[in-house]
Amino acid sequence: MLLEAQKIRADFPILKRQIGGKPLVYLDNAASSQKPQSVLLTMNAFYQVSYANIHRGVYTIAEEATELYEKARETVANFLNTKTHREIIFTRGTTEAINLVRFSWGRKNVQSGDEILLTEMEHHSNLVPWQLLAQEKGAKLKFIPFDSQGKLVLDQLDSLLTDKTKLVAMNFVSNTFGTINPVEKVIAKAHAKGIPVLLDAAQAVPHLTVDVQKLDCDFLAFSSHKMLGPTGIGVLYAKEKILEAMDPFLGGGEMIKEVHWDHSTWNDLPGKFEAGTQSIAEAVGLKAAIDYLKTIGLEKIHDHEQALARYTMEQFSEMKELTFYGPPPKDRCGLVAFNLQGIHPHDVAAVLDRSGICVRAGHHCTQPLHRKLGLEASVRASYYLYNTKEEVDLLIDALKETTRFFKK
Ligand code: C6P
Predict the structure, then answer these.
(1) What separation in angstroms does the CA of 263 have from each of 28, 118, 260?
(2) In the chain, what are the domain boundaries?
(3) How far is the C-alpha of 172 from the C-alpha of 340, rounded, in Å?
């Protein structure tokens, strides 16, 4: 079922733009999404009416700003169905959230000879931090493989989870295949052996209903900018008792209770992990983004994007010079990565830009995944609630034209 995308589009000022006289066709939502008017106006109003630093001032606008910032935390907590809002830590984004776990949890809990289990389809943000930790500690990384459809092969999971495994860290939705991974299964198996699980949910939270209590994941990370919110803010969710036992991440203002010349004590959660002045207006903007997503409904958004992906794949199947990657539509979110035979992905993206079409070309921060496929790069079209079937048609026409152009 498709959403009434034309109505939704009216809420996004940038979508009225033209590129070289052609309407903007924004199909790079997995990289970052566009922002509705409500997010822009809310942030603007915050700066114009209530802006001040938070948790410090006793004057009216400082109290208002603090209230709005904490209201944003509550909104995120409700959105993810956490047990308490103390389990929500604001970070700069997914990357920082995962690195927070690496430093504050990983340094304490991973030792020489230990193992961390990842998948072969991790974004570099959920691979490089663990490589750095493994190098520092003398630990080892292991990988759940993917098959020719871009789905995880779980046959070996029991033997991949060993007495030495200290953490499973995996993406919920692949940013390259679009695969919705069977995270519940992995969590159940890992927990049966007492192993905590971190979900990189950067491509999941914007598109799927995510309930952390139902999932029972131990950590979960995502970014605001991929879900209609501003850049510069993201979230780390972690179970309260795990956060309590973790060391602070950054040291400085706000994360302390008492400071002496030679030592300090730490603030209660979540302050312990939010050192320095935070991205205050961005938190307010993230709340507005979640409010907007809730008015449409994540189930409807997912159905819409999946229908667009299905339609794209049907069209792609008819194009013999095009290869696309990943699982069948029912197992994926709304993105499709592909290649046109004999044409470099960057050339494809540059030609599409002449038709006002924005797609990502490159390795999408999944170099090892591309290497396993024998590729250096691919083109990726990724959809969101405001994209239309007509835009997919424009993409298909432009790709056919690209093929003709390069064959000349
Ligand atoms: N993927 C893409 O085009 P940050 O940059 O911290 O907001 O998010 C990093 C990140 C982590 N995990 C996954 C699964 C992701 O997709 C991303 C961001 C973008 O695919 C930019 S590289």
Answers:
(1) 47, 37, 5
(2) 40-294, 298-407
(3) 28
CA distance 51 to 61: 6
Q: Which of 277, 185, 268 is nearest to 233 (CA)?
A: 277
Instruction: Find tokens 């046959």 and name the residue.
Output: 155
Task: Compute the distance from residue 357 Cα to the ligand 1 centre, in Å.
Answer: 21
| The model scores a pTM over 0.90 | yes
Question: Closest residue (by CA) to atom 5 of ligand 1?
Answer: 95
Which of 101, 102, 128, 175 has most ligand 1 atoms within 8 Å of its beta carbon, as the pocket-test mutant?
A: 175
Pick the CATH number of 298-407 from 3.90.1150.10, 3.40.1390.20, 3.40.630.10, 3.40.309.10: 3.90.1150.10
- 263: tokens are 């030592």
**Residue for token digits 């007495």?**
163
Tokens (6 digits) for 59: 């004057």
Domain 40-294 belongs in CATH node 3.40.640.10? yes
**What pLDDT is recorded for position 408?**
75
Widest CA span of the chain, in angstroms?
A: 74
Ligand 1: atom nearest CA of 231 is 7
Per-residue tokens: 286: 């993230």
| Confidence at residue 253, expressed as pLDDT on a 0 to 100 scale | 96
Ligand 1 is surrounded, with C-beta below 6 A, by: 30-31, 93-95, 123, 125-126, 171, 175, 200, 202-203, 223, 360, 364-365
Which residue owns the Cα nearest ligand 1 atom 19? 31
Beta carbons of 3 and 385 less than 8 angstroms apart: yes
Residue 224 in contact with residue 231, Cβ under 8 Å? yes
Tell me the per-residue pLDDT of 222-254, one tens digit each, with 9 for 90 and over. Answer: 999 999 999 999 999 999 999 999 999 999 999
- Residues in the chain, pLDDT under 70: none
Point out the ligand 1 atom lying closest to the alpha carbon of residue 223. Answer: 7
